[in-house]
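Hey, sorry for the delay on this. The queue was backed up all week. Below are the sequences that define the complex (chains, strands and the ligand SMILES where applicable).
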Amino acid sequence: MIGENYRRVLANIAGAVERRKNRGIETGPVTLVAVTKNHDVEAMRQCIDTGASVVGENRVQEAKGKFEALDRSVIWHLIGHLQTNKVNQAVAMFDLIHSVDSERLLLAIDNAAGKIGKVQDVLIQVNLAREPQKYGAAEEEQTDVLKKADHLPNVHLHGLMLIAPNYENVEETRPLFRKMKELYQKVQDMDLPASDIEYLSMGMTNDYVIAVEEGANLVRVGTGIFGPRQY
Ligand SMILES: *Cc1c(COP(=O)(O)O)cnc(C)c1O
């Protein structure tokens, strides 16, 4: 079941990549992040044995238990909001942190990474839809946070992340993904010599096909692979 779902999601991504190529949109190969939050280690094993190489977790505490229990080698991405008091643990586990949404958090990550001699790969989460309840750097702060990330010695900036609102009609996300792609290109053109702006993380189960059609190259899919989460 998980294996079948995983392969279907990959096929859907491949279809979306074909369509975007036909429209001249090129952002390179797409990486699928299997979002394993609220699913157990056995489900993670099944998905990894099917071919998944990247897993996404949204809570440090939950990830830690699985990180210690999982007998598979995999790349760990943190996709959920990170509190400053969890930064040390997060930096010890995660290969890429998608959810850096403030300069304060960025500095905390740099400090924690420095202590363990690591350079932490990060994305900056953008709050493009200006939803007050969502985390993410507002547009005015973005430039400052990006420049800061480029300057800090123990973080390496790789791109941007967006969590789109849950519109009733999923097509409503398309203009937002387009706007995000434009912003991504602007950031690629910024003077950020120490960074590699190569990842545009957007799209979840409901909207990943549209996100890939509009240029996402890192998509985060949970329900579409594992089925509904039990809370
Ligand atoms: C849970 C989560 C996802 C995956 O959501 P699904 O709808 O289950 O695919 C993606 N991104 C973030 C940030 C999440 O918290």
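The mean pLDDT is 95.

I'll add it to the shared folder too.

S.
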